[in-house]
Amino acid sequence: MSKTIYALSTVFGKSGVAVIRVSGLKALSVVSQMTDLDTKSPKPRHAYFCTLSDPVSRATLDKCLLLYFQSPNSFTGEDIVELHTHGSKAVISSVVSALSKLDDYCLAEPGEFSKRAFYNGKMDLTEAEGLADLIDSETSEQQKYALLQMEGSLKNLYEGWREQMIGILSHLEAYIDFPEEDIPEAIKSNLLDSVFKLKDNIKEHLSADNIGERLRDGFRVVIVGPPNAGKSSLLNTIVKREVAIVSDIEGTTRDAIDIHLDIKGYPVIFTDTAGLREAEEEIEKKGIEITFSKITNADLVLCMFDASKDSVHIFDDLKNRLKNNVLYVANKSDKLTSEQRLGAKEANNILISAKDKDGIDNLLDALYQNIQERFTSNSSLIITRHRYRQALENTVDNLSSFNLDKEIELSAEDIRLAARELGKITGKIEIDDILDKIFGDFCIGK
Fold it and tell me: 217-372 falls under which CATH superfamily?
């Protein structure tokens, strides 16, 4: 990290203000070589209005605000200079080009500012990924949970577990060093109990049904039903525009159509599918195969039927595929008598008319409740990435292998591997932690 890096931190294009960030040992070269400021050592966290010039030609590039963040109290832990320029493409291009002329300056690689923050101990990997999620967030719930992760909610949980494992390992390492001494029964019991509780806590954390990954990527809601049940009409009504072809001709929808929406802060991917029926035409058969594959991967299935001629029993053969994440939607309520409407509601169907836009709010409320109920009281500690889940599962496997009936070196290795798997999540995989724990309890002079 000897090079000083620079990059545009805002979106390239026309805007009122653009922020160009510089980080590294020679960040203050910008002040001495590209500005008209009198001082070469600006006060940290003060804003200076200055003229920005090309370091070679001395041509004026812009009038800007300059801010200095002194190491280690900066985002990267290095000296940082920020240039708040006007946001025209010409200004941005000329300033970036001018920075390339400074000695030991190079354009930052993607994510390099955050990578330097990680290497300099300003954040762990979960906090860095929380920052990435915050930048990518499109809904209020995504924003909320990304902020929690960026502020260290997952780091504190995983590091707490890892510290417990290091404590257990330090006891085991001590007995490895003194093989002639047997582990007292009381200590054996405490070690086994500690490992059991750790394993149980991690397994409970893993039982959240991929809720965090769904929050990042979107909850998959698949609309299924027979031809002409009104699936495409429902999708058009929900998104408030024509995204699917609506026709009285059966088999009009041949492929699955995905639409991304924000439902009260949660990202939802609605999928309209081909009508379920016995088809002879090859393209329609392929569409129905796609429907079943979508059902398999769905978080929630809306089983939709024409209530004026069918009942929920048309889905009896499908129930084994659907598990419990199902909402039954009775469409075309405008064609029903009052008695039929009452019967449909008593059967726990959601009654709608996609044509008249009636009952749509009730359906969206039910969908929202279904999603919200999947968040537990510990929902601030959700697993947001597959790599976390994989490392946690490996941790559980190693803890499950632990017992004190085998060689103590093998028992210690189980704990060491478990701690290492957790360290992969946060980015801390260091043997020095174990040594510090062991020797930190020694008295002075030993």
Answer: P-loop containing nucleotide triphosphate hydrolases (3.40.50.300)
CATH of segment(s) 140-208+383-440: 1.20.120.430
59 phi and psi angles, rounded to 5 deg:
-65, 140
Q: Are 224 and 291 in contact (CB under 8 A)?
A: yes
What's the CA gap between 436 and 438, in Å, rounded? 5
DSSP summary character for residue 443 = P
Strand partners of residue 224: 303
Sketch the domain layout of the chain as residue ranges.
4-119, 140-208+383-440, 217-372
Q: At the fourth CATH level, which superfamily is domain 4-119? A: Probable tRNA modification gtpase trme; domain 1 (3.30.1360.120)
Q: Render each residue's pLDDT in the chain as its tens digit; 446 residues.
A: 579 999 999 988 889 999 999 999 999 999 999 998 876 678 999 999 999 999 999 999 999 999 999 999 999 999 999 999 999 999 999 999 999 999 999 999 888 898 899 889 998 888 988 888 888 888 888 898 889 888 999 999 999 999 999 999 988 888 787 766 777 888 888 999 999 999 999 998 888 667 777 888 888 888 888 888 888 888 888 887 665 444 444 444 444 678 888 888 889 888 887 666 554 555 555 655 666 777 777 888 888 888 888 878 888 777 776 766 888 888 888 888 788 788 777 778 889 888 888 989 999 999 998 888 876 545 667 888 888 999 999 999 999 999 988 888 999 999 999 999 999 888 876 545 544 544 444 443 33
Q: Cβ atoms within 10 A of the Cβ of 132, count? A: 15
